[in-house]
Amino acid sequence: MAAKVTFLPDNKTLEARPGTTLLDAARRARVHIRTRCGGKAACLMCKVRVTENAGTGLAEPNRNEALKLGGLQQDGYRLACQAKITGPVTVLVPEDPLKSAIRRQLEKQEEEW
Predict the structure, then answer these.
(1) CB atoms < 10 A from the CB of 46, how many?
(2) pLDDT truncated to tens, each residue of the chain (113 aa)?
(3) Which end of the chain is more exposed for a tag (fewer CB within 10 A), N or C?
(4) CA 67, 19, 57, 94 torsion: positive or negative?
């Protein structure tokens, strides 16, 4: 049975089959999650954070993911390329650093006007 997956801050939701990775679900929902390694848990760029009151909805991290995340796992972070959906889940996708820098610069320019 499909599970509801929501990606914030885009607030995009889709139904995904159990066993699908968050990265694959995000691609289907047209939510951009940065990655350089192609989903091999090597670059750590696809970190997302599971929202506190969204339930887990994800399988336990495999050994490789747990080692890569270290202490970040206790703060709700997961690697989208490794985290497999088991039920309803809501995740927060961090803003792309370049997009963030551009947004801050535009906000600064608006304040100066």
Answers:
(1) 24
(2) 899 999 999 899 999 999 999 999 999 999 999 899 888 888 889 999 998 665 579 999 999 999 999 889 888 999 999 999 999 999 999 887 777 778 788 888 888 87
(3) C
(4) positive
Residues 22/76/99/27 CA torsion (nearest 10 deg) = 0
Residues 14, 5 contacting (CB under 8 angstroms):
yes
Quick count: other Cβ atoms within 10 Å of Cβ 38?
9
Contacts of residue 10, Cβ cutoff 8 Å, sequence gap at least 6: 29, 31, 93
